[in-house]
Amino acid sequence: MRAHVAKAYSEENLVPGTPTLPLKNIRSSLLLMLLITVSIVWVLMTLMRPDILPIKRVRVEGEFQQLAPDRLEAIVTDTVRGGFFNVNVEVIKKILLLDPWVHQVTVLRNWPDSLTVQVSEQVAVARWGDSGLINPDGALFTPDSYTYPENLPTLRGPSETYGQMLAQYLKLQEIIMGTGYVINGLTLNDRRSWTMRLSGGPLLILGKKNKLNRLARFVTYIKSGPLENLQEMETVDLRYTNGFAVRWKDKSYNFELGRDHNG
Fold first, then answer.
1. In this predicted model, which residue has the larger pLDDT, 27 or 7?
2. CA–CA–CA angle 39, 43, 46 (5° rounding)
3. pLDDT per residue over 174-190, tens digit each?
4. Predicted structure pTM score
5. ∠ CA 144-148-149 to the nearest 5 degrees?
6. What span, in angstroms and rounded, lies between the C-alpha atoms of 182 and 195?
7. CA 45 from centroid of its chain's CA atoms
8. Cβ distance 256 to 238 under 8 Å?
9. How far apart are CA 147 and CA 145, in angstroms?
10. Per residue in 89-111, pLDDT tens?
11. Would you state the pLDDT for residue 254?
């Protein structure tokens, strides 16, 4: 009697049109899904083993003046631990970036067993006193002094002002372009007063303000002819409203043009 009631209750609660799956089919589907999952995990774990698809070749690419590609390849080869899928490229980057002349590093995997390492070398546009070099982004880097390129301008100023000073150097250099001279040194002292030395020429005292206009006025004057031979000048003080003062290497003759010294 109870079995008959239970069967009737079960049949009454079935939703018309609902498909039913035999219990055997459900178990088979679950077992298949489990096997697929285990297989995927096993494949992934196998591929992550260091002895599977080991890195056999390393190639370093870039344009180098200071860095030796053979040395970089040796560093990467000694650093590589693991196979194609689990080699730690971040470790490779960090080790290469320990060299101050290395600016940026990109590591590419090449199927099935090699790496391409693209290295960007630092470019020095100026010296920061005796402390290091400045790149075009205004950032300081500090390689060994014997690796410094020759004929770089030297910038000197308060701590952490190298970016600001590089920007000013580029503006000042643009003004004197065409005179046959380049800036050999640029200094900003603790009182925020600027001086610059021309290569083969005098020390120019620019002062605290209007330095670009002062230099432009001086360049216009020397291009006009009266002061072509800058090599005979020792210093030129541009801190005048409408002129400048010259101290010559020959102390017997000095020259002053303008008035109203203006700091």
1. 27
2. 135
3. 999 988 889 999 999 99
4. 0.76
5. 160
6. 14
7. 37
8. no
9. 5
10. 999 999 999 999 999 999 999 98
11. 60
Q: Are the CB atoms for 188 and 219 separated by under 8 Å?
A: no
Q: What is the 3-state secondary structure (H, E, C) of the chain?
A: CHHHHHHHHHHHHCCCCCCCCCHHHHHHHHHHHHHHHHHHHHHHHHHCCCCCCECCEEEEECCCCCCCHHHHHHHHHHHCCCECCCCCHHHHHHHHCCCCCEEEEEEEEECCCEEEEEEEECCCCEEECCCEEECCCCCEECCCHHHCCCCCCEEECCCCCHHHHHHHHHHHHHHHCCCCCCEEEEEECCCCCEEEEECCCCEEEEECCCHHHHHHHHHHHHHCCCCCCHHHEEEEECCECCCEEEEECCCCCEEEECCCECC
Mean pLDDT across the chain = 83
- Token pair belonging to 158: 């308060």
Residues paired with residue 256 on neighbouring β-strands, in sequence order: 245
Q: How confident is the model at residue 6 (pLDDT cuts 50, 70, 90)?
A: very low
Residue type (1 letter), 168: Q
Would strands 233-237 and 203-207 be described as parallel, antiparallel, or unpaired? parallel
pLDDT tens sequence across 20-47: 556 667 767 776 676 676 656 555 555 4
- The vertex-68 CA angle with 65 and 70, nearest 5°, equals 150
* Structure confidence at residue 71 (pLDDT): 96
